[in-house]
């Protein structure tokens, strides 16, 4: 197709580089520098989409990120991008795009029939229409969800790579329009470290489309000169194609840099997008403004565009979107489009709602012979074409805020609309600032800044070029002063003389009494939210703009209300008979524009999603048949399979080896926290339920830690290395949580305590040698420690050496057997492990995994925090009252005396024996008092741990049961969906060696 709408000269495109692309299966061509939207317009394609709800024909309306209509599915397969805006997509060779939300095609969309019933489908219709009969709602919901949505999510794995980068700057400037360029230049000259971001491929902002002169040169030339000056400054970094999408606390801004999206798929190498996390001492927001449309009947027809977008397509992309154009405006800026169109041969008429304007642009338009209808408004647009492209409009008189009679019907193939400008306050609001309403400028402008930042140019409501340049330089000098750097002499650039008359706020054209009765007046184009929907929401009692947003879907689309929200808020204010300032705005949340999941994830995918941690003898485990399980981030051997053994056979063998001979367990993953300082004992007294100041040096003690609610948080065996020196152990999964918990209290609540914490989890490897022959194995390899029971009692530790490697050996037990835990610097761990294995060969030493460890500890009734507890268990519930000190305070103590915590009816930790000793109770199964068909059944508790005990030759289980201590010896039933009802007896959680004689063995 020939580019009949492309001007023969002009624009910022490279006509030497022709680019072919496809849209909806049809081939077209454009030029280097085009966007998909501009290339489609150049080929005469206005009708590009259907609306979300009513499937009305829609055309390209804007030239930027605020585009609500031209949403496409970009590419296919692994490279597909749903809901991309055609106005943001740079054109590249062999690009493929298709309209979304249409079937079977854009022109023949079967859902277009919904338009005929739109009168009966207002905002929230499905809440009322499909509620009866109730049983059919799931079916209705399924159909509604099928009809909803826009693009299609990718099904193939993303083929691209993404990265993240952290940066620091003295001054971060967001936006490279005239204000941002002036600010960055001044800040750079002042010696500050400057980062300048802009979402477009070229700097210049509004100057890319304007025809202004600066210092006697075209604006584009001026921009090129400023960019060269910035490139020559080593202290300035410029990032184009980079959108700042979030503003967090402490001047942290997040931005997405698009590195390869402008290249053909075959040429894309390396990283596609990079997330920049920028911490700045000062921030200058030069984010510009978005033009508002005007709200009138059928204002969504293809061929209706923002006036500013028309200027962009004419001046930047050398496209004449129409040859018989109307411009409907309430401000002087709308005249720029009329002038641009007239200069390139279009017939133009301006429809201005104001009585008169003596501004520079209206006078220039008049001098060019452009017809101007003052005190007039467009009442309705019409079309009878198959693609609903605009053909004519009705024009009505408008005087002193009152709508008059229709005075004319004007034919056109293009209608430009300009309802004023909205400063882009999104990042300002995200920073904590609150936008304030300006009656003079008819828009929300930034209020007082909360963080170290300032808004300039159009983002601050300073729409004139002179204001933007002066404001940018002043903001830079203010930031330099705050940084202690010298000010820079402002540059007085020569500008064209410019006068501007005031805007006439115009929010809705039409008789209010007839709202909802005629053609729709759209406010949110993507979600088909009309003025009637907003009035309906007000009638139904919605007064908060946030509630109206959710009821009508105003601002829910991919443009997040950039185009329609202010109009919607003004219409709501009118419906509620209050001011726009009283109505306020919706919340401006990140992200400012959509950000890909890939960019957010970076390289943290698959094996890199979480760090995989392995112990120093991981290779040994692999070589000896270990089957691993994930515990926290650690890979721990679950069991070691010999030959054709399944897990049950392997665990049985490992358990019996520990009970009758000797086993060895890699326990290196347990958390280890070093605590030192004069107040170390006091600190531990506050953190744990039991006392620590009287623990002797060289002794061990089991500790129980609670949260503020008095619930068990973590546990472990801790040792005292010196007067002011302790080493704590935690559960494997709780190591980082406990460290953070302790640091939180130490730094925020008890900063007066002189205590230092250090994580030593990776520094030391721990090997548990357990079983009746454990002492014999250690005596063979460690000659400088006396292992006699009298010299090395239970719950104590000794320091010695193995193969001249210093070791710390603790006599503690999680299996109930005679057990020694050997702690060794991890760099020597493998050598010491091999030595222990070699020494144990005489006694048939058997490595055992976590599953055997669980069976052994369950036989002894030892808890595992997080498995036998769930955040609702107190020490008393676990039968551990003896560990709760009565004479000191600690975290959670006061909560233990609450009526609910100390009352009856709480779940308590007990043992459970199935009536059939060979039947293993399912973990998670519910415990009931008796069999019942009642639903929901009255549940007493549930099974927390359940195993088959080889040494007892029967099943055992642990659980939490309401008032379980009083039910000892009683029969209950255990139910799961897989097994049905199973009878079981409530018993002591200690199933083996109740006296503890084995772990105290002499």
Secondary-structure topology with pairs:
Blueprint: E1 14-23, E2 26-32, H1 36-42, E3 47-50, E4 57-59, E5 71-74, E6 81-85, E7 95-99, H2 125-129, H3 137-147, E8 161-174, H4 178-189, E9 194-197, E10 213-214, E11 217-218, H5 219-231, E12 236-239, E13 242-248, E14 252-258, E15 271-285, E16 289-291, E17 304-306, H6 307-315, E18 324-329, H7 335-343, E19 347-352, H8 360-367, E20 371-374, E21 376-382, E22 392-399, E23 402-411, E24 414-418, E25 421-423, H9 426-430, E26 435-438, E27 443-446, E28 453-455, H10 465-482, E29 522-524, E30 529-530, H11 531-539, H12 545-552, H13 565-576, H14 580-583, H15 597-601, H16 618-623, E31 626-631, E32 634-640, H17 647-660, E33 663-666, E34 671-676, H18 680-687, E35 700-706, E36 712-722, E37 725-730, H19 735-749, E38 756-759, E39 764-770, H20 774-781, E40 796-802, E41 805-811, E42 819-825, H21 829-840, E43 846-847, H22 850-859, H23 899-902, E44 907-914, E45 926-928, E46 939-949, E47 954-962, E48 971-976, E49 980-987
Parallel strand pairs: 1-7, 8-9, 8-15, 9-12, 15-28, 17-24, 18-19, 18-24, 19-20, 33-43
Antiparallel strand pairs: 1-2, 3-4, 5-6, 5-7, 10-11, 13-14, 14-15, 16-25, 21-22, 22-23, 26-27, 29-30, 31-32, 33-39, 34-37, 34-38, 35-36, 36-37, 39-42, 40-41, 41-42, 44-47, 44-49, 45-46, 45-48, 46-47, 48-49
Helix pairs in contact: 4-5, 4-10, 6-7, 7-8, 11-13, 17-22, 20-21
């Amino acid at each position: 197709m020939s580019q009949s709408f492309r001007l023969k000269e002009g624009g910022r495109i490279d006509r030497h580089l022709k680019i072919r692309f496809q849209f909806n299966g049809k081939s077209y061509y454009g030029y280097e520098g085009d966007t998909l939207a501009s290339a489609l317009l150049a080929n005469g394609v206005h009708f590009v989409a259907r609306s979300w709800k009513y499937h009305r024909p829609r055309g390209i309306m804007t030239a930027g990120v605020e585009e609500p209509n031209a949403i496409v599915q970009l590419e296919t397969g692994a490279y597909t991008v749903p809901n991309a805006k055609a106005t943001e997509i740079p054109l590249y060779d062999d690009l493929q795009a298709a309209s979304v939300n249409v079937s079977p095609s854009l022109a023949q969309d079967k859902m277009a029939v919904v338009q005929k019933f739109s009168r009966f489908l207002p905002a929230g219709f499905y809440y009322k229409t499909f509620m009866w009969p109730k049983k059919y709602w799931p079916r209705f919901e399924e159909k509604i969800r099928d009809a909803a949505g826009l693009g299609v999510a990718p099904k193939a794995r993303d083929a691209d790579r993404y990265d993240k980068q952290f940066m620091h700057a003295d001054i971060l400037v967001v936006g490279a329009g005239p204000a941002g360029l002036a600010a960055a230049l001044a800040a750079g000259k002042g010696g500050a470290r400057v980062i300048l971001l802009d979402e477009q491929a070229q700097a210049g902002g509004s100057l890319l489309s304007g025809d202004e002169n600066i210092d006697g040169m075209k604006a584009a030339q001026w921009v090129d000169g400023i960019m060269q000056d910035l490139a020559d400054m080593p202290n300035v970094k410029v990032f184009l194609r980079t959108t700042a999408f979030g503003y967090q606390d402490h001047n942290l801004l997040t931005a997405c840099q698009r590195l390869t999206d402008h290249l053909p798929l075959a040429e894309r190498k390396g990283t596609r997008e990079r997330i920049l996390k920028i911490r700045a001492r000062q921030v200058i927001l030069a984010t510009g403004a978005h033009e508002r449309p005007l709200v009138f009947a059928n204002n969504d027809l293809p061929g209706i565009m923002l006036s500013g977008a028309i200027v962009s397509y004419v001046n930047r992309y050398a496209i004449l979107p129409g040859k018989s154009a109307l411009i409907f405006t309430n401000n002087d800026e709308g005249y720029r489009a009329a002038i641009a169109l007239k200069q390139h041969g279009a017939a133009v008429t301006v429809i201005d709602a104001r009585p008169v304007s003596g501004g520079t642009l209206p006078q220039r338009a008049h001098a060019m012979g452009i017809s101007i209808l003052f005190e007039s408004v467009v009442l309705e647009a019409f079309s009878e074409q198959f693609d609903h492209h605009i053909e004519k409009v009705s024009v009505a008189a408008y005087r002193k805020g009152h709508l008059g009679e229709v005075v004319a019907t004007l034919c056109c193939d293009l209608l430009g609309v300009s309802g004023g400008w909205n400063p882009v306050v999104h990042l300002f609001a995200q920073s904590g600032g609150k936008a304030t309403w300006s009656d003079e400028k008819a828009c929300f402008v930034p209020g007082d800044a909360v963080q170290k930042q300032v808004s300039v140019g159009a983002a601050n409501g300073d729409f004139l070029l002179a204001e933007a340049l002066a404001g940018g330089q002043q903001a830079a000098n203010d930031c330099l002063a705050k940084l202690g750097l010298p000010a820079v002499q402002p540059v007085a650039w020569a500008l064209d003389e410019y006068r501007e008359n005031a805007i006439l706020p115009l929010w809705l054209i039409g008789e209010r009494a007839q709202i909802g009765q005629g053609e729709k007046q759209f406010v949110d184009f993507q979600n088909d939210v009309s003025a009637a929907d907003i009035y309906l929401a007000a009638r139904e009692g919605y007064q908060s703009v946030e509630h109206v947003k959710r009821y009508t879907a105003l601002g829910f689309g991919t443009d997040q209300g950039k185009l329609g929200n202010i109009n919607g808020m003004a219409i709501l204010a009118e419906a509620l008979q209050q001011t726009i300032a009283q109505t306020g705005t919706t919340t401006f949340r990140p992200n400012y524009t959509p950000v890909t999941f890939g960019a957010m994830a970076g390289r943290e995918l698959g094996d890199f999603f979480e760090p995989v941690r392995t112990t120093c003898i991981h290779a040994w485990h692999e070589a000896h048949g270990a089957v691993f399980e994930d515990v926290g981030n650690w890979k721990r051997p679950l069991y070691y399979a010999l030959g054709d053994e399944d897990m049950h056979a392997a665990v049985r063998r490992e358990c019996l080896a520990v009970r009758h001979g000797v086993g060895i367990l890699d326990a290196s993953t347990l958390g280890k926290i070093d605590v030192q300082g004069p107040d170390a004992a006091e600190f531990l007294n506050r953190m744990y339920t039991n006392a620590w100041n009287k623990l002797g040096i060289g002794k061990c003690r089991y500790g129980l830690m609670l949260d503020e609610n008095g619930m068990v948080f973590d546990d472990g065996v801790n040792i005292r290395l010196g007067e002011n020196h302790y080493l704590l152990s935690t559960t494997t999964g709780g190591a980082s949580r406990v460290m953070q918990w302790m640091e939180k209290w130490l730094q925020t609540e008890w900063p007066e305590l002189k205590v230092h914490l250090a994580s030593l989890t990776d520094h030391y490897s721990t090997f548990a040698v357990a079983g009746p022959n454990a002492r014999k194995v250690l005596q063979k390899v460690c000659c400088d420690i006396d292992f006699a029971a009298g010299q090395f009692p239970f719950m104590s530790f000794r320091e010695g050496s193995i193969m001249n490697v210093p070791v710390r050996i603790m006599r503690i037990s999680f299996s109930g057997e005679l057990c020694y835990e050997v702690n060794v610097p991890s760099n020597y761990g493998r050598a010491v492990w091999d030595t222990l294995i070699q020494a144990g060969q005489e006694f048939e030493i058997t490595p055992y995994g976590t599953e055997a460890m669980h069976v052994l500890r369950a036989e002894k009734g030892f808890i595992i925090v997080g498995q036998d507890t769930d955040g609702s268990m107190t020490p008393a519930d676990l039968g551990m009252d003896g560990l709760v000190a009565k004479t000191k305070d600690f975290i959670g103590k006061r909560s233990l005396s609450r009526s609910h915590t100390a009352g009856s009816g709480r779940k308590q930790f007990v043992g459970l024996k199935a009536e059939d000793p060979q039947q293993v109770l399912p973990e998670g199964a519910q415990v009931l008092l008796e069999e019942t068909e009642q639903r929901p059944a009255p549940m007493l508790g549930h099974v927390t741990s359940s195993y088959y005990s080889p040494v007892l030759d029967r099943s055992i289980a642990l659980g939490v049961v309401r008032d379980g201590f009083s039910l000892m010896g009683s029969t209950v039933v255990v139910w799961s969906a897989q097994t049905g009802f199973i009878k079981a007896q409530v018993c002591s959680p200690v199933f083996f060696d109740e006296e503890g004689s084995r772990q105290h063995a002499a």
